[in-house]
Amino acid sequence: MDREKLFSQPYAWEALKRNLKAGHIAIENLLNRPAWSPRSSLAPQPIPLQVRVAIVGSPRLFHLAQQVDADFASMFKVAADFSDTMSRSTESDELFARLIAAMVREDKAHAPSTSTAWPA
After folding, report:
1. Percentages helix, strand, coil for the chain, rounded to the nearest 5?
2. How many CA atoms lie within 13 A of 15 on its CB side?
3. Which of 1, 50, 105, 111 has its CA 20 to 30 A from that of 9?
């Protein structure tokens, strides 16, 4: 998930935390909250939720979120920094090709047919 988009949407972060902690997605109408009006008697069943969430963003935003929200710090304990560039060598090219081949084997993906053109 893009951290900036997640935190820029009203109620998105609070809903994500609530659903991850509960282990299910509970669909609710915000207008039915007690502060605005009485709750409706009809509600869909919660949907089971078993996911791992990775939030992508700048290191600055990660550290800011940890300081501002204690739940963020307890739910997202591992930060990983990745470079947006990679040095190229015969060895790194071979390792990358092996990684792609392993992913293809794992997903049982197939090479495109001979009539399919690969982009240059």
Report:
1. 45, 5, 50
2. 12
3. 50
Query: What separation in angstroms does the CA of 119 have from each of 88, 92, 112?
Result: 21, 22, 12
pTM for this entry = 0.56
pLDDT of residue 39: 54
Provide the percentage of residues in the chain whose pLDDT is more than 90.
12
Q: Cβ–Cβ contacts within 10 Å for residue 39, how many?
A: 11
Tens digit of pLDDT for each residue in 10-43? 889 999 999 999 999 988 766 655 555 555 567 7
- What is the 8-class DSSP label of residue 47? E
